[in-house]
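Troubleshooting log. The previous structure file for this entry was overwritten by mistake, so regenerating from the original sequence record. Sequence copied from the archived sheet and checked twice against the printout by T.R.
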Amino acid sequence: MHEVRALTFDLFGTTVDWRTGVAAEARRLGVQADGERLADAWRGLYMPSMNRVRRGELPWTNFDRLHRLSLDRVLSELGAEDFDAAARDKLTRAWERLPPWPDAVQGLARLAGRFTVSTLSNGNRSQQAALVAFGRLPFQCLLSAEDFRHYKPDPEVYLGAASALGLRPGQLMMVAAHKLDLRAAQAAGLRAAFVERPMEKGPAGGADRLPDPQADVQAVDFTDLADKLGC
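Regenerated output below.
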């Protein structure tokens, strides 16, 4: 662990609360459907849409565009199709206006006192920049799957992040609330920190939970992670 020099953070679910944020924005824009149900259905198309890129069914397509394509299907399934294209574009930008988890800003600030702290998200750069500004998240770098034209959990993303930061893979730690993300990072040679977000998918559950014995560090939130890493 003494070799770790930088931490890369997943954003959606780990750093920010996508479900609450998307639901709130849908209500604000007047979508005639349950906001939480819409958020869940939209997020449910996250991996399938990226897999279409992996299989070559779509050329490289950034995250905003994948979200926009998925939204049409979600609104159709929920019977909320009375949104014109401009309104749908506005709703897609809900992913730029997601609230940080309550511990995120303080925890990141503490961690940044010892490590380089960077995003490493499937979100595209412009989306990340808007999200970081909205939440006043004290990241020092932004790294995106867009930079490597691969989506997590492809190894090219993790290895590309290490290279972009001028580090060996073992000097970089991936921080995420998703065990799939962490296992892929470890397979690429990175360290891994699991941070539990039990409310990511709402009160019905479904989020990854502690323990994660395969992780190098386990924490209940970012401030706990800062404690564990001596920050």
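Residues 63-77 form the longest helix (15 residues). Archived copy saved in two places this time.
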